[in-house]
Request: fold
Amino acid sequence: MDKKTVLICDDSLLMRKKLREALNPFNFEAFYEAANGVAAVEQAEKYKPSLVFLDIVMPEKDGIEALKEIKAISPETKVVMVSSVGTSSKLKEALKHGAYDFIQKPIQSDTLASIVEKALKEG
Reply:
């Protein structure tokens, strides 16, 4: 990864804030945020982030559709799906469409750290 940039997409402002705080220790050069899948695709196209955290269940465009579009725009972007309990079939679909990994809500900081460290190391 040349530039360490991250896009956080969740329809919950609180979840975006918590994720951003949890990601602060990784010294990302820039943080971008989106409240729905449509905005996530627009941000991904504009900024080409190295890492995206993408909620699955959102208004306007769900995470699966946004994932497909983001991977089409920027195949090298690593997209980590974020899901609540009960979305395992959606997670399988996300992995099929190129998701890098997934993380379950509520997000555990050690799980988040291991995913981010792995993604940054792989570049």
About this structure: The domain at 5-122 is CATH 3.40.50.2300 (Rossmann fold). The chain has five helices and five strands. Residues 109-122 form the longest helix (14 residues). The chain has one domain: 5-122.
